[in-house]
Amino acid sequence: MSPANLADPHSVEGIPAESTVPASDRNAVFARQVRELVKDLLAPNPWIYWADFLTSVTIGHIALAVYVSAPNFSITQVAACIVGALSIYRVLMFTHELAHLKRGSFTAFRFMWNLLAGIPFLMPSFLYTDHRSHHVNHSYGTKGDGEYAAVGLGPVYFVYAFVGQALLVPVLAVIRFLVLAPVSLLHPRIRRFVWEKCSGLAQNNLSYRRPLPHGRDKWIWGLQEAGCFLVCATLAGLILTGVLPWTILVKLYIMFALMSVVSYTRALGNHWYGNSGSEISYLEQMFDSTTIPGRPLITELWAPLGQRYHALHHLMPSMPYHSLGIAHRRLMAHLPPNSPYHQTLRPSLFSAIRELYRGAKAHGHRAGTNVG
What we know:
mainly alpha, 372 residues, single chain
């Protein structure tokens, strides 16, 4: 679905699409319907956050320890790698929740998440504090949205590049915190460059420059950065002194590259990436996003914390992850089959990516930019 189609009228219960009511009014009615159906699901439950996080991070750390110590190429090592990658992936997805939770809330949870996961795995929460620009009407899909790259408009090799960059993420994380962090302290210009261009978890938009930290954020982010440097420096010291073999770097790279590929593949299926840079509404954001209910257990592995309900998340960005499934089932039960929300449904991640690929290829052919 391209941006040109984002505002197309869809019928809303009680207002046929062929009626003379303006599309904007029908869309407003639909938005009110959705909010009425799910308004009781907007409060995050701390107990669910803590239980999910502590369980997942425990499994992740144990699996990581088993993986690096198991005999090479053994069934135990392979199984531990997969379990560890998926568990740690789930844990790190909580950074998305932290970005949406009200500022100043969940203080203890934020601290423990960074202590047990964000800093040890080189993905501290400050890397994603600018995520809200991916939801604001005037910045979504524009130069002000660091996560958005219009790969749906072609050329088609951008689709490959989007996922391929995942293989660089583990290496770039080490360079960011082990090398760039201390070097950036030598000169303000270097420091500015590192903050603006090398401090975003998903900077797919090369034109994007994230805002510099200020006030309280400046020292909190600095402490997180220092913690990540110490993790890298400690690991490097243990390897250089012979306490750990250098092969542990290969093992860590394989696990975290696997995790990154799963994450970027999931992200590729979350949107149609068809916005060429214009400002769009929340409803249009929903049409540029997908809903892939899939199979509950399997889908939760590659789309944890409600990521399979991405269209609903863009329509209701403040809804906590544990409510998205409930909200989705309500909407499916109470909205008519031809509602705008139903238009976001896709049967699988593969089908969504295939549709995106075909759209990018078609756009590329029209623009004469496809190769191969």
